[in-house]
Amino acid sequence: MALRIKSLAVAAPSIEQLCHKFAARLKEAKPDALLWLTDSQQTAAVAKVASRACGASIGARTDAGLIGGGSEFYGPPGAEARVAALAIQNAGAVTPFYSPPEGLPELDDWASLASAPPEQAPPLFLLAAPPANAGFDLESWLARMDSALPWSKKVGGVVCSDRLFLNDQATDGGVVGLAFRDCDMQAVVSQGAAPVGKSMLITRADGNVVRELDGGPVAAALDPVLADFMLDEPGNLMVGVEVPTAAAAEGGPVVEEDRPYVVRQLLGFDRDASALAIGAAPDLVREGVRIRLHAFSASNARNELANAAERLGGAADGGLMVPCVGRGPALYGQDGVESEALGPSLELAGFFANGEIGPVGGRTFVHTFSTSVGLLRRR
After folding, report:
1. Which of 12, 154, 285, 356 is the most buried (most CB within 10 A)?
2. 237, 266, 296 — which closes off a domain?
3. What are the Cα distances from residue 37, in Å, to 125, 207, 304, 308?
């Protein structure tokens, strides 16, 4: 049976009306799996509606903006509360799960998920509680998940509340997710940044501070690139840190254009101290890893998504879209730019996040100023 995806959005001035409208839309969609977000404080009421309509649902509250029904609703809640949802029909076997901040998801069939071969690895949609509030290291949790499910693509984002819902059960912190056993997922992470100049090898580092590049002072390597950037490149300067691939680990040749970079903030550059501080975990910023400056801009972000849509060529019906709260109208000056770049025919639902989850170079990261997209299709 063909996969069917429907992006939904409803709004109403009261929780009773909101739930009534949401229930009516779900009755039409008849989902087998459901991911929902709301800006209402009455989250439990929305969760009850979702769980009655579908046995595999996850959801949460977010207050930075919703995406659904062909529209983007940016910013905090207004006079009407909203629900946005991704209703998925004919997805095959779908496993909803919860993971506490420590450890891994609590599943009876965890062993079968973990032992799936690469071509059958289940892609995951994830909703994560704010790490600062929940008291857990989300990057470390994703690293554990990558170790347990190395072939599974993982896309999602950080919501605004510790209270997540697995069906109608509220959880305290951690992560809720959906694992799609019979679907493939095309994962797109738009970091909105184009490379500037050549890559440089870290030859000495202290935590997240680079002390030497290409065997010499940081300034000697950066100055020529910075001079060209100031003259030619629009946008804000950031740093791409190479994510080592299997080919690189085995000592094989890596073409520069094929190097995957996770883009992070440039926190500071002290010429006299030969120090370049990067907003990345110390396990990324280490000797033997290459970095490359990148220019972040609205045009680069939009073009990156448009190019991704062209590569996909209509191979998916829809999926989850999670832009940073710093994108949307805050970046482009208007709504809907990224949804339009991906293509009006896609059924997209999601939310504006304070941390976007998606893969780069085979490793899953929490990003900033990015947009993560997971597009499903039935195997």
Report:
1. 356
2. 296
3. 13, 37, 26, 25
Query: What mean pLDDT, rounded, does the chain reach?
Result: 90
Tell me the two tokens of residue 363. Answer: 């490793």
Query: Model confidence at 106, in pLDDT bands (50, 70, 90)?
Result: confident
Domain containing residue 198: CATH number: 2.40.30
Single pTM value for the model: 0.93
Query: Do both 67 and 156 map to the same domain?
Result: yes
What is the Cα–Cα distance from 176 to 138, expressed in whole angstroms?
Answer: 13
DSSP 328-366: THHHHSSSSHHHHHH-TTSEEEEE-BSSEEEEETTEEEE
**Is the per-residue pLDDT at 256 higher than 70?**
no
Same-domain status, 64 and 185: yes
| Cα–Cα distance list, 338 to 38, 45, 203, 331, 348 (Å) | 21, 31, 38, 11, 11
Cα 211 from chain centroid (whole Å):
31
Fill in the amino acid letter for 339. S
Assess whether 181 and 223 both reside in one domain: no
Which positions ≥6 away from 10 have C-beta within 8 Å? 18, 21, 22, 25, 69, 82, 83
Query: Do residues 284 and 317 share a domain?
Result: no
